[in-house]
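Justification of resources, computational component.

The compute hours requested in this renewal are based largely on the per-chain cost of generating structure records like the one below. Each record pairs the submitted sequence with a full structure-token output. That output is archived, and it is also reused by downstream analysis tasks.
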Amino acid sequence: MALMFLTETVRAYRERDPAARSNLEVLLCYPGLHATGIHRISSFFWRHGLYTTGRFISHIGRFLTGIEIHPGAKLGRRFIIDHGMGVVIGETAVVGDDVYIYHQVTLGGTSSEHIKRHPTVGNNVIIGAGAKVLGAIAIGDGARIGANAVVVATVPAGTTVVGIPARPVDREGSKPRFDAYGTPCDPCLDPLLHEVDLLRSELTDLENRIGKQFKREETSVYDDYVI
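The structure output for this chain reads:
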């Protein structure tokens, strides 16, 4: 099982990160791989009731990698943490398969009670750098979370969200693909900025119409004076 995890995760890094030039480089130089490997060890002890041991091992992983993953969190297969520094994944977080996240991402809780209080992230999700996904919410399969977004509500499958608080944006094309930092390279509009642009366009049109009306009135007054 451990060998299968290592093999398929290294392969996933090679396929999705153009900076990964060899398996050895991934094994030695990728803190995300190290962090998820250490987490699997700490999670083993946590699941068997050795909570302090599990927390201590996860603490060592945090010290070595700068990535904090609670041993109670559940991580899927081929989970990639790119760069990694500052990533925080809480105790009741659940992460699906083939998820790709960047540095400074937080999967955090919004309750101090001993309940499910962290996000559940579906399969094939990308979460951009600095994004905060907070609360016992669901991120649907294939969703994209833009860099620095703050997500506090459930995100439907296949949806891209950006901003604070995060809002859906149009995403061209329906075929699954890799969107770096969770944001498509194709033009996509923030809905609020789109509304502002529409208001500007309407205001400009109104100014032009008023200007034309004034010119007509001035011409009419001048013609009456001449007559």
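The chain has a mean pLDDT of 86. Residues 191-226 form the longest helix (36 residues).
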